Amino acid sequence: MKKTTLIKILIGLVTVLIILVSLSFIDSHNDFEEQLSINKKVDSVMQDDAQQRYLHDLTVRNKQIRNSWKDYIKISTNDYKYFDLGGVENLKIICRNDTPYKLDVVYVDICYIIDDGTCYKTEELTFNNVPPNSEMSLDAPNSPRGKRISVDILEMYSDELNFLYNLTTALPDGTNDPYFSKERHR
Predict the structure, then answer these.
(1) What fold, for 72-166?
(2) Is the pLDDT of residue 155 over 90?
(3) Origin, by domain of life (predicted)?
């Protein structure tokens, strides 16, 4: 009888041990799932923080480009031909865009200057879709008079940069980003 009782006790202990090990495994699996869920949330928050930092840095950089646009966007002429008695031929106007953004439109005013320093006539050229970090040139009309050329940017707009410059529009007071705009004038 002692032997059967001992076997029953031993079977009972093994059964209890198996139950405890199973419960421990189930509990550790739940802890693992919970830890995995927490890690996903932490990764998500870290990604959100990284994205916020990136967007902040991008905003600061774009503002710097807008407010110092003269360092990035230039208008010039080629070595055009002019005559001693007056007249300009083979004039090209060059728009240089050293920003990482496309310029949607750039309006340029060309003044043909005669000997007395006055503007004989003006012409307007429009550059469309000037690619980032590139230059584009347009042929300007010939003129029967003039020896020198003066070129001014009248207006330019970049949707990607949220940038608007207009020669005749006063800058808004009290802003540290006066060229920020999501709309163009023309």
Answers:
(1) Immunoglobulin-like (2.60.40)
(2) yes
(3) Bacteria
